[in-house]
Amino acid sequence: MTHFGIISPTGSHLTTHFVLGHELQRRGHRVTFLNILDAQDKILAADFGFRVIGESERPIGSEAEILTQRGKLSGIASLKHSLKTAEQDMRVILQDAPSVVKAQEIEALLVDQCSPVGGTVADYLKIPFISLCAALPLNRDISIPPIFTTWSYSPTWRAKVRNRLGYTVSTVLTKSIRQLTAEYRQQWHLPPHAHPNDNYSKLAQLSQQPAAFEFPRALPPHFHFTGPYHTSLGRERVSFPWEQLTGQPLIYASMGTIQNQIFPVFETIAAACVGLDVQLVLSLGGGMPLEAMSSLPGQPLVVSYAPQLELLQRAALTITHAGLNTVLESLTHGVPMVAIPIANDQPGTAARIVWAGVGELIALSHLTVDNLRSVIHQVLTQDAYRVQALRLQAAIQNSGGVQQAASIIEAVLATGKPVLRNSGGIINLTDHIQN
Predict the structure, then answer these.
(1) Cα dihedral 133→135→141→145 (10° resolution)
(2) How much is the CA Rg of the chain, to the nearest whole Å?
(3) For the chain, what percentages of helix, strand and coil (3-state, to nearest 5) are there?
(4) Which InterPro entries match (predicted)?
(5) Cβ distance 101 to 127 under 8 Å?
(6) Are 205 and 133 in contact (CB under 8 A)?
(7) Rounded CA gap, 2 and 233, in Å?
(8) Listed ranges 233-242, 331-340, 426-435; the one with the highest mean pLDDT
(9) Residue 354 — φ and ψ, nearest 5°?
(10) How confident is the model over 370-383, as pLDDT tens digits?
């Protein structure tokens, strides 16, 4: 059996990787997370090994301070804040992870695409690594828009010129992280990366999206859409006043757990639902105190945290910041959406919601009560959105899920070779290993 190390950002990315890590443990493997002290309790509670990195640079409480600042930001300001923190975390990984991996005798790394320097650590230690996409795939391709935009997909040359300009902005914003990677690769006598896509594994790259939720694009032959990994593992149990549900069509609204301190957004959502024959359940994600919501229009059922998976089983519509986990969980239950993207890859996820026909998006700059009420009514009353959401639900059910992802990982370790997808997406891994 193999001892896997997982390198990942904190937050929702951890929750996703917990499910994969649990499946690997069930198959007899050992799993250790390399992360900051603020993630320790959550990782240990999920029954994984934990080894700290960045103990001095990222002391207890540093993550809460960072998220408090980011929760008040949106757009490019939030993206810049995220990248600044990411650079610090990348430096920590490069400094501390090699010694931890050696000391723990970790044999392979599973590296979140948002922690790309983990691949450089694996190259330095001469151990295999596999890339995990807990967010939208970061593989750069000028045929699709950058993930921090709500630009729609188009195969035209004009769209490709537009996309190229967008990636130029991305290149400028990520310059310091590229320089940091180049510095360590030179120091460790590794070949330089010629392209951003060189950060990712040449053995297997795993995305929790279904293929049907991605724009038409070229991806490496060892890239696999396995579908989402959803369980209650790693999620805190929260109480919920189920007796207060009225039986009206349920709108579940959540702006996630990071960009969730913009009060006017919650106010607009509540006001937009007034007069509709619906019940609004609004989850604050811990970003604001319940007392701050006492003046919201209408009578929404407001909670600090919600049992999201259970509520989605009853929901007619999700209003979301377009965080990928919430979007995929909604689609797993066949629930259409209205997206209000705030930052990072949320605009790109929202654009895919529209492209897939499972909902609509409203940019923050165009968010008004009238606009939102109109879009809510449209998505609730037009059957096409529900039909497409059910199509995506079926695609998710046929994607293989965490079992397929774990089998691909095992095939990589068994053969030492790339695991390639076939035209249908799902591959016969037993045949792959035997061949």
Answers:
(1) 170
(2) 21
(3) 45, 15, 40
(4) Glycosyltransferase_28, UDP_glucos_trans
(5) yes
(6) yes
(7) 22
(8) 331-340
(9) -65, -45
(10) 999 999 999 999 99
3-227+399-434 placed in CATH 3.40.50.2000: yes
Please state the pTM of the whole predicted model.
0.91
> Domain spans of the chain?
3-227+399-434, 242-396
Mean model confidence pLDDT for the chain: 91
User: What gap in Å lies between CA 210 and CA 339, rounded to an integer?
Assistant: 19
Q: What is the token pair recorded at 400?
A: 């293989």
Tell me the residue type at 75.
Answer: G
Residue 332, H or E segment: helix 324-332
Contact criterion met (CB below 8 Å) for 182 and 195: no
**What's the rounded Cα separation, in Å, for the pair 139 and 107?**
25
Per-residue pLDDT tens over the stretch 176-215: 999 999 999 999 999 999 999 999 999 999 999 999 999 9
Cα separation of 79 and 64, whole Å? 17
List, in sequence order, every residue forming a beta bridge with 360; answer none if it has no partner. Answer: 338
Q: Give me the residues paired with residue 195 across strands.
A: none
Residue 295's alpha-carbon distances to 255, 267, 364, in angstroms, are 18, 9, 22
Categorize the per-residue pLDDT at 406 as very low, low, confident or very high, splitting at 50, 70 and 90: very high
Q: Which residues, listed in sequence order, are joined to residue 4 by a DSSP beta bridge?
A: 31, 108
| Secondary structure (H, E, C), 202-271 | CCCEEECCCHHHCCCCCCCCCEEECCCCCCCCCCCCCCCCHHHCCCCCEEEEECCCCCCCCHHHHHHHHH
Q: How far apart are alpha carbons 429 and 408 in whole angstroms?
A: 7
3-227+399-434 and 242-396 agree in CATH topology: yes
- Decide if pLDDT at 235 tops 70: no
Query: End-to-end distance of the chain based on CA atoms, in angstroms?
Result: 21
CATH T-level topology, domain 242-396: Rossmann fold (3.40.50)
Q: How far does CA 120 lie from the centroid of its chain? A: 22
Residue type, 400: G
Tell me how many degrees the CA angle 112-8-95 measures, rounded to the nearest 5: 110
